Amino acid sequence: xxxxxxxxxxxxxxxxxxxxxxxxxxxxxxxxxxxxxxxxxxxxxxxxxxxxxxxxxxxxxxxxxxxxxxxxxxxxxxxxxxxxxxxxxxxxxxxxxxxxxxxxxxxxxxxxxxxxxxxxxxxxxxxxxxxxxxxxxxxxxxxxx
Length: 145
Hints:
mainly alpha
């Protein structure tokens, strides 16, 4: 598809959609949103870019392999924070009992482990959606060598 209007609007829109997705991820402990919804917004911006231009242009921004690595990284962040809380002698993903601050309304960096956990979930969700998109578009039998 060679639609100049779609490409122009997508090129202008994608950075703002990504910024909004990051906002939703980073403010998920203070307002509605969080890692899942923010990750879905970030992934939708990358999918929009790939659909507007083509899959080859989309994979230049984030390859299938890089997306798979980020997917694992997001899961490791989530699990790592849970194991860190266990090492401190509290429950898996425990925040308050582990001595992390509980958070102050309106203060972005006051939530202790919650913000890191939410970021890990956002990375995992975004990269999983992008990986699924690439897998479905490439079709069966066309590996991502």
